[in-house]
Structure to design on (163 residues):
């Protein structure tokens, strides 16, 4: 029975001692490590983020903030690759845009061709519909002739085919 208090004391002491110095992971994830600079894998993550920032904005402050030369050179190497990738992508997209423009142009040229030969319109005698007469015309387009009359007697309406 003399041991019990001792054990209790030891336990209490251990509990009180428990929190180890918490070190915030340097990558900025907000988590704490067990004494190291980074959580596992977070050094690579920080280097990757720094590389992206450098590749996109030329901002090397994040690279300078990396704790070791090894990480800095890794980040710079990654930034170089990212830049090359971005350039390749931009080139591909420019080529694609060019192709699409050419395609759209070809299409509009094609669509515009028939209108290059405007249909011939011949005025003809007004047609009588019921009590009224309406302006009429013949539209000759592509070898077809269609007789149309205006839906308004003063000719200000739409032209509709006369069957
Ligand atoms: Zn982290």
């Amino acid at each position: 029975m003399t041991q019990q208090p001792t054990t209790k004391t030891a336990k209490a002491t251990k509990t009180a001692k428990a929190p180890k110095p918490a070190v915030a992971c340097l990558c900025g994830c907000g988590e704490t490590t067990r004494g190291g600079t980074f959580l596992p894998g977070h050094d690579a993550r920080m280097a990757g983020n720094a590389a992206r920032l450098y590749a996109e904005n030329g901002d090397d402050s994040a690279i300078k903030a990396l704790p070791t030369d090894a990480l800095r050179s890794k980040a710079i190497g990654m930034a170089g690759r990212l830049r090359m990738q971005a350039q390749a992508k931009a080139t591909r997209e420019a080529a694609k845009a060019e192709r699409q423009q050419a395609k759209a142009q070809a299409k509009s040229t094609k669509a515009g061709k028939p209108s290059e030969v405007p249909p011939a319109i011949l005025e003809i005698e007004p047609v009588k519909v019921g009590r009224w007469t309406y302006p009429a015309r013949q539209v000759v387009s592509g070898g077809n002739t269609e007789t149309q009359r205006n839906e308004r007697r003063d000719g200000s309406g739409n032209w509709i085919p006369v069957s």
Observations:
- The chain has two domains: 20-113, 120-161.
